[in-house]
């Protein structure tokens, strides 16, 4: 099974690019971010014609997340990150697909910092840490896939010098990401690539793509039930090289099919939601 995450940066603007990627790479599950479209503008028919069922959480002009499943219909578990009923930004959705709990997230960018946008990023991350712990402990295989807007270490960026003041590299952002990993989650790409540099995002400016001056900010994290099934990971860089592309490239993992588990307390159940 191939699970991918892709910040599409405008689903209707880049619909043909999305469909071309789905046709060529055929991910079984695709998590999309930055739809930049309200719910009724989501191109559901075009995606269905490509062979994918979908659920989505849209928002006019900004944000927006979706989960696509090839030859299947994702079952929605929840939408909106728990913990703040006043937060109406469309950044989070949970689904069940093929026996896996799939979380698609678009963590706030946080720029400029310091300021209210960075404060929102950290508060959102704190809420996410609480939900992530619940999901990690739920007893089902779980993947947290999305654009985290965090460069975990200096080895995940071409050159950190000019980015030191950016919200993606701030100590507070990295500390929260490290706390997330500390819950037990496996960072799939880092696990597969080891010390080798791998990027998922190239800024539009200053020829970052042409110079391969990239950042790794798109992550797929696996809990203890799913991590042993990880077999491969990669980035579909060719997508970033197309005409008028997103500034991200699809990032993916391959996992083996699930096997029957011992009976003891591993019966399927939905993860509980707590606020």
From TrEMBL:
Its cofactor is Mg(2+). It holds the Pfam family Exo_endo_phos. Belongs to the DNA repair enzymes AP/ExoA family. PANTHER family: EXODEOXYRIBONUCLEASE III (PTHR43250). This is Exodeoxyribonuclease III. PROSITE patterns: AP_NUCLEASE_F1_4. It comes from the Bacteria. The keyword Kinase does not apply. Residues 4-248 form the Endonuclease/exonuclease/phosphatase domain. InterPro entries: AP_endonuc_1, Endo/exonu/phosph_ase_sf, Endo/exonuclease/phosphatase, ExoIII-like. Gene3D superfamilies: Endonuclease/exonuclease/phosphatase. Keywords: Hydrolase, Magnesium, Metal-binding.
